[in-house]
Amino acid sequence: MTDGLVASAPRGEFQGSTCPHDCPSTCALEVEVLRDAQGVGRGIGTVRGAEANSYTAGVICAKVARYAERVHHPDRLLRPLLRTGPKGSGQFREIGWEEALDRVAEAFIERTARHGSETVWPYYYAGTMGLVQRDGIHRLRHVMRYSGQLNTICTALCESGWMAGVGRYGGPDPREMAEADLIVMWGGNPVATQVNVMTHVSRARKRRGAKFVVVDPYRTGTAAAADLHLAVRPGTDGALACAVMHIAFRDGFADRDYIARMSDAPADLEAHLAARGPDWASAITGLPVAEIEAFARLYCETERAYIRCGYGFSRSRNGAASLHAVTCLPTVTGKWRHKGGGAFWSNRAIYHWDKTLIEGLDARDPAIRVLDQSRIGAVLTGDRRDLGDGPPVTGLLIQNTNPVVVAPASGTVRRGFAREDLFTCVHEQFLTDTAKYADVVLPATMFVEHDDLYQSGGHSHIQLGPRIVEPPGECRSNHEVLQGLARRLGAEHRGFRMTAREIADATLRASGWPGWEEIAAGRWLDAQPDFASAHFETGFGHQDGRFRFAPDWAAIGADHARMPRLPDHMASIDAADGEHPFRMVTAPARQFLNTTFTETPGARKREVRPTALLHPRDAERLGVTEGGRVRLGNAQGEVVVTAKLAEGQQEGVVIVESIWPNADFEGGIGINLLVSDDPGPPKGGAVFHDTAVWVRPAVAETEGLERLAAE
């Protein structure tokens, strides 16, 4: 892995960086730089967490600790490729950068002349969370008047639910978890997905004897470490939250003075909840009444009770309503008033970025259509509900994402990418499933090989990611690719004439922060607001400063008519029935991050294979044994995986931890084949954890799979 390289000095000298991946932790890193005989940084060795950062606190996940596996991977893309075989075949030949960029620009120019500029769709997401390298694609989009993108695949439902009640993104300092007496992890698995949460949980348990409760449909690594695991049925979190509020009013734990001062409709809420007690919630959630009562009493009696809202339980058709219901809990009980109390989802608004330069907002035309990224399959197969009166999408530029595997309804997605009239350019680090459908593939840098600027959602630090090693082969950064295309397309904007570091520096200063060099001198900048603001003592984010028990859903999204007026269980999920008796959740695998790290040997060895977690009694009824093959299906298709028996979930719940590449499944297509691309109300959002399926023993080795692969 490090042939020809030597340590930069005696082993143990590190340079500061920031983890770029799609995780709220945004860890502050120290990366060992390996140099060649001339002293040039050519690779990396050990990666560790920065102990001096008060949130990272020296702890990072195993995935990133093994990052040298990615940087030095033998399958890494190093030169531009031109497709020579059928789409999806992975057959390419190497070409030069000039030819590659010329081909992409010519294809976009030709298609624009034929169909208009909206026929080109720059498609991206969070393969890097750096603001310059991730979001710069918008600058090209806006200048060239290409189709816009509605970002729904990750946070849209969380955003709707949080904003409905709270009204602005922010909340109690995440480090306050260490000062809480009760921490409730609701719908998240930080052992796998944001490990630093567990650092602060551990501190609270050790120093204060704090209790740790996890609400999750199955026994994750986080749930296994909890004092209490509430294994709700998928999609029923709102019912549990309502029952806890019912008990708070019933037993005198409601902070009536607080809700009178700080909320909009306390009397309406109390009357509404009168019929939503633990018996009602038990029938919906599957939790015993005694367990609901015990959790409610623990929560209500603990002043310093901190709810950390995860993303998982929002990825359902009722996800926005469920998250809103959970945020009502600290309002009814007045927990926001206390240090170590309240609720937290994301700090994204505290940075008040001016992204005009990064995104080319000064060139944006609001009349240009915006396409839903979660419905890329429908878009590419010509669904007029998505395209409107505009042209078909005939040109794609893809950075930082792998939609052939990641997007819902992946069978439809794959059909769309297979269109012969669709020209696709993918800028990637590996030959992903999406890259295999590209006409031109461009090799991309990794985070240690370019400059970038980072914010965190999960804590409060502005951080930098300087270029500390040279890119291998002919890899280029996202910004460099956009510059090259802009020159060929005639896209004029000052951002295309600046370096990534210059853009980051200018953005920092325009946003009211010190510049790059000043922040670099201190490694990071803590932007956490003061206690009064973070705990909403100065008011929630609505104009009158009051929390909304009765949200204005119409102000949040067009699909608002289905939303409940007050917090409730919104019975809009893909419910189990006689034909599809199981509810499936496609939770993240611990060693992967979306489809990142699925190529690294360490991660693959630990994950082994795609697996379905089944309750033992379900397995017995089905005639399935540990390690046996099972077939999962619904109207969208069928997938075969290996069964693993797991008691930490209710009967009728099946968990398939993902996201594995398509080739790791017997039929050559992954679990998102079964996931609908229905948009969750009120403003869209992918519903990855809201799927009803049947489960059967896979008795025939290839039954139906050749047909499915051909489709």
Kindly describe this structure.
It contains 28 helices and 26 strands. With 711 residues, it is of the alpha/beta class.
Detail the topology: elements first, then pairings.
Blueprint: E1 6-7, E2 14-18, E3 28-35, E4 41-49, H1 62-65, H2 68-71, E5 81-83, E6 92-94, H3 97-115, E7 120-124, H4 131-135, H5 137-144, E8 148-150, H6 156-165, E9 182-186, H7 190-193, H8 196-208, E10 211-215, H9 221-224, E11 228-230, H10 237-250, H11 256-262, H12 266-273, H13 278-285, H14 289-301, E12 305-309, H15 319-332, E13 342-344, H16 356-359, E14 370-372, H17 376-380, H18 384-387, E15 395-399, H19 403-406, H20 410-417, E16 423-428, E17 440-443, E18 452-454, E19 461-465, H21 478-489, H22 500-510, H23 516-522, E20 524-526, H24 531-534, H25 553-556, E21 582-585, H26 601-607, E22 611-614, H27 616-622, E23 629-634, E24 637-645, E25 653-656, E26 691-697, H28 705-710
Parallel strand pairs: 7-15, 8-14, 9-10, 9-12, 10-11, 12-13, 15-16, 16-17, 21-25, 22-24
Antiparallel strand pairs: 1-3, 2-3, 3-4, 5-6, 5-17, 18-19, 19-20, 21-26, 22-25, 23-24, 23-26
Q: So what's the oligomer here?
A: single chain
Fraction of residues in helix: 25-40%
Rg, alpha carbons? 25 Å
Mean pLDDT: 95
Separation of termini? 39 Å
Largest sheet: 6 strands, mixed
Report the structural category.
alpha/beta
How many β-strands, per DSSP? 26
Overall form: globular
State the strand order across the main sheet: 6-5-17-16-15-7
Beta-strand content estimate? 15-25%
Spans where pLDDT lies below 50 across 5 or more residues: 1-10, 701-711
Number of helices: 28
